UniProtKB/TrEMBL annotation, chains A, B, C, D, E, F, G, H:
<protein>
    <recommendedName>
        <fullName>YtoQ family protein</fullName>
    </recommendedName>
</protein>
<dbReference type="Pfam" id="PF11071">
    <property type="entry name" value="Nuc_deoxyri_tr3"/>
</dbReference>
<dbReference type="InterPro" id="IPR019884">
    <property type="entry name" value="YtoQ_family_protein"/>
</dbReference>
Length: 149, 149, 149, 149, 149, 149, 149, 149
């Protein structure tokens, strides 16, 4: 049983790498958004031409990124959504909403300070954790039944 | 053709009433979340008993509210999502994600200052507006084809 | 917003009537299985002819009842599943499984003594309660936002 | 044609191994829940932290197990559900309900004494058997058309 | 709970009227194919112009009839399929296959002589009967729980 | 049985009115796009503000119109698509593609000169006609079984 | 692009082998029902025990065969249904109905004498042919675009 | 993450080869319609026999081609639709409509002169481009996040 896991949300720390390293020896396939911030912001105009209006600049880029996101969420069994300490991160909550509506198993990762603001997202999740290590432990348990010792 | 419209998001201003008034004479059915802030926060423990831990206090309430939200989004043709000036409003983005994944037509309403942070949500929408009046005009146009004069 | 609620499970007490009475003044439509125990057991052979083998006697009846159950669960927004004090009640858990897989909002009602045995069903529910009064309060809150005073 | 089979239900005997051995030479892929009883009960708190309340202790664990169950049922062509001699086993009936609603072919395995109590589940099944050997024979017949001699 | 019932199959006897009369006082909505044999055969060319080739003559007509059949099966909760004494009646079995794949509850009605030839269709049904009276009794039981006395 | 019919395509002749008049006495509900050409082109900028670039001017309008189209096609049992004598009419073919993929019954209406160019669309249709009168005759036959005399 | 093809219907001639041989050098995966007539009839009682009543004897067998049929049709891109010269063959039409409702591409194979009786099935098909050679030619064309010379 | 891409539309230039060459070193699987114009037009009668009427000649061929198109669109993550300079190309818009309704990510490729006529198709797309090179750049960015330098 190969688990297909999409790692959504915050792109300014190395939490994805931590999870992948923690699962290096088990049968899990990971996917992720483009995590280079500038590429993610400017991909649309870089390929399809500049826009005078910031709205359309962002619109072109967000749609290109959506091609990847929709594919990855659609293929996933599990969607892990991390909310970091900074920024609005509405795209993370938007991904969580899509994943939930599509019947994916959702794992949410955030610090205690955001607990009340994320209560609707947490209520839709099958697990709520604070650390990458916990995500890796969950994936290992789901995959082969072993628990941390 | 009756339009079924769910008004998601911000609950601290009277934008829902403005839209409803602007559509009072056309065939539109509106639904909304419970907009009493205290009821929304405490409904779970009020009915099912107190919790020592804030996480479970919120979890019980968020799940009760989800019964209403899921029904309303599921029945809707159009989901209007408003992002206000304050708070994290992750639940608004979460509702938008669900609506999009379920194939609902999404209208997003926010001020210009949030444009960049909401680019993924906006990119999934069929209309992005700033005012309640614009939402009412859109619903009227969709319903009967008339435009503001 | 009319709520469509299916009341599944135990048929030896008047819990359904209590819920309906508690919701008499709000916009909720209820459905239920055939609650006459003998009719439910014997409907198949009564209409389609006797069977020598108890397995087929029961099989004929269970399939007729399934016509009603599938219709009712399919139409429901919310499925309330009550586990009583007696019997195996595997059909209640089976209905809960169907409801969950179909994306219905599930409310589970049982006494504390069954908590551990029902943990998988409870984990799939949006509310877990002990009394009919609590179910009625939840339906009222979901319908119009009012809480018990 | 690879058959994907999920073996749900009772975890206190070696029926899964018997089926797998009986199908060792044909093209069938098996999956199963975590069958270590203690791990299954305590996985949630082991990874995500202790809970004072037994309900939430169990809730955390049941949700982790649901990640695996949902994946396995979702991938399965056939779901075999065994009801043993002991315990309530509502989770087995709950899995059967999910499998049936998702259009999976359901095989039920139980002793004659539970026939009447399981009539609704049996009525939804494409085969009802008593032994592991019969399940293996069915899978072999479905796979390559050969019958026991 | 209104039951929506499609009466498929044989068009040379008055079995539909018998069922409708037997259900005149309960909440059931019936639909049926066009039962005028000549109209059903010739509708296509009557509206869209003659065809030299019998295959296309029939093709045009069968497609018009499919507009009605697809609508009626799609709206139905229950599809009753009657196989008469004469003709190939492949369209009846074809309708049964569609109904089954769409998750409709299927009731099959035929004489004992066709039992072996219809075993696959019967195995997909929730009830197999011989008479219109039995169908009416089933619909009554599903609707209000009352059995013939 | 109420038929719900969406009339897609050409907006420069009165074919919709002809069909509606021909069906005035039977149980058919019609929907249609906004057929005022200027409103349809300019609705987006009229409500949401002018665009310097024609692409975005059209994009805003086309998305507003899509809210109506998606609702109408989604609710329809039958989608009639008319290709007129002029213009590219790619939106008509685009609507036909959506309708077909969603399992709607498609009726195509065009002159003989476009037969070869429309062969893929015609091949997906259940009826291909040249006149409004023929569409009305089909809807009448599907509704009540009567043929033109 | 691997084509997955299910060969349904008549089991008394070697038409399946002819198609497979005609496609031996292209990328097509075939599946089929169990074509041993006695095994197909008696599989249920052979594994699950004898039945006194012929109806239940057949019912047990038909349900086992359904496990294979549902899997094969569900996995198929294309379902070829052959109607032979003899027998009622309602199961072939039943399979065709399932395949059509599930959105599979249906190819029907029969002699001219059955044309009128099969008009509804033919009208749902994307190809109607008389010989195995034609089926093989179609699969080859769909796979690689080459036509018979 | 393997991207599955269907290249729909115009068949009179080598745009498909340009895209495939531009993506030769990344993990993308391409599919396409039969691009030999004569084969595409005549496949139906070549295999299934001549037709006197051009409508049925084309109908037979279009249905064979639909077997391939439906398979390819169904398997695709991304559907690229190119509108060339000539012809009506209603089949391209029809494919785009199917792809959009099935939730595929749509990329549209056309020259500026067709912008207004294609506004509804463009509005449903996640990217609108003019050249094969841009399509290849988009697929590369979606696949591995790298942008043209």
């Amino acid at each position: 049983m190969t688990l297909n896991v999409y790692l959504a949300g915050e792109i300014h720390s190395n939490w994805r790498e931590e999870i992948m390293q923690g699962c290096a020896d088990i049968d899990v396939q990971f996917s992720a958004p483009v995590t280079d911030h500038d590429s993610s912001d400017d991909c649309g105009v870089a390929i399809m031409g500049a826009e005078a209006d910031k709205f359309w600049h962002d619109n072109k880029g967000a749609k290109l990124n959506a091609i990847r996101t929709r594919k990855a969420i659609g293929d996933a069994d599990i969607v892990v959504v991390r909310f970091g300490q900074k920024y609005k991160q509405w795209n993370a909550a938007f991904d969580a909403g899509q994943a939930y509506a599509l019947g994916k198993s959702v794992i949410v990762m955030h610090q205690a300070e955001h607990q009340h603001a994320l209560k609707e997202v947490d209520a839709a999740a099958l697990a709520v954790v604070e650390t990458s290590q916990q995500v890796a432990q969950i994936l290992r348990y789901v995959q082969d039944g072993s628990l941390p010792t």
